[in-house]
Amino acid sequence: MPVEAEPGAHSRSGAGGDAASKTIPPGDERESLIGLTRAELAECLQAVGVPPDKVGMRSKQLWHWIYHRGAVEFDAMTTISGALRAALAERYTLARPETATEQRSTDGTRKWLLRFADGREVESVYIPEEDRGALCISSQVGCTLSCTFCHTGTQRMVRNLDAGEIVAQFLVARDSYGEWPSPRGQRMLSNIVMMGMGEPLYNYDNVAKALRIVMDPEGIALSRRRITLSTAGVVPMIERCGAELGVGLAISLHAVRDDLRDELVPINRKHPIAELLDACRRYPGASNARRITFEYVMLKGVNDSEADARALIRLIAGIPAKLNLIPFNPWPGAPYECSTPEAIERFAAIVNRAGYAAPVRAPRGRDILAACGQLKSASTPRPSRPRATSAGATAAAASAAAASATTA
Ligand code: SAH
């Protein structure tokens, strides 16, 4: 399928700033204001000499310009005096990370490869639907899990993203669609799924800080109901995530027996299925209106039998749940094949009959390797040791089928 790659593409910008001024130039040592809490923003204002009695008002204005208007440079901030704008610009920046590539799938899916100041890269994917769309955001460069079916899993874990780098993925997508100021009504970028590269619950503090910023009602103002966080099963963090953030939860289940899940999703050896499902039963805020999504990748001859489907229903009994059956997305060298359409249909029919929604979405963005489990920034080194012993590896991937089904 044709892929329209646009190296270095920067399309429309938010308030102020042309393409050239939008990304951080190499060697720029100014601190980014993106990803700071309101309190931290206030400190920055104090640092450039704003008197204490004005700091509250000024940080409100700054917040509005950054997260409601999408300003990429201080000069666009017409409610702030020229002198203060200049002082801010001297020390701070609102520039986005560099867009190394922006690719567009024939089905409308867009994928950005973003490069941060240290040269590290992550991908984010936007999956449009008729009247809305989900942005799939990464939380780490690489991943420490080693899920055997996931392309990100073949990548060494490099580092956590900081809150600014997580928020910036949203800002870049917004810039690309010119969706500024933050629309109060219908939006293209209406949902977020933390389903990109990395395990978000292994980088909880930064993820939480970033999500609080995008949920802030005076900025991007995305409702927690439109955010879903996916985890491979970091059990000790699940309850906290629900209590503190109240976002939707998705679980990468993928197997119904511990022996198989130990292999596919190795974190299972630490937190086996029963423990994981207990945490789901206790998840704050889960209800029939806010169901937990169980993601299940369909692997031919591995986890796709009718007996597996029946065991799955028994396992999740009592949990307000929906299922997301993800056809396995192949990647070069992957040791699995996707289940046949017939096997997927049989599997779905069994869970449907048990009363669970189990949409099987057509994979999106496969032509640009933007589907679940296909994300992998090429610049990140491959593990130098064999995978079994490598510290690095897996998990995530953005997606497509997963994302759209989860946010439906
Ligand atoms: N680490 C988190 C976030 C990643 S979410 C987690 O594991 O939940 C990405 C989703 O895509 C997960 O459900 C993951 O298991 C799934 N996935 C990974 N590789 C895939 C592939 N090749 N085909 C289909 N789904 C895949």
Gist of the model:
With 408 residues, the chain is an alpha/beta fold.
Number of strands: 14
Assign the structural class, choosing from mainly alpha, mainly beta, alpha/beta, alpha+beta, or little secondary structure: alpha/beta
Note the overall shape: elongated
What integer is the average pLDDT?
86
Largest sheet, in brief, is: 10 strands, mixed
Characterize the structure shown.
With 408 residues, this protein is of the alpha/beta class. The chain has two domains: 19-93, DNA polymerase, domain 1; 98-368, Aldolase class I (TIM Barrel, Alpha-Beta Barrel), CATH 3.20.20. The protein has helices spanning 19-22, 38-47, 52-68, 82-91, 163-177, 204-215, 235-245, 258-264, 273-281, 306-316, 341-353, 400-407; strands at 4-7, 31-32, 92-93, 98-104, 110-115, 121-129, 132-136, 140-141, 159-160, 191-194, 227-231, 248-252, 292-298, 321-327. The longest helix has 17 residues, at 52-68. Mean pLDDT is 86; it is low at 1-14, 16-20 and 379-408. Bound molecules: S-adenosyl-L-homocysteine. The site of S-adenosyl-L-homocysteine has 22 residues, from strand 11 and strand 13.
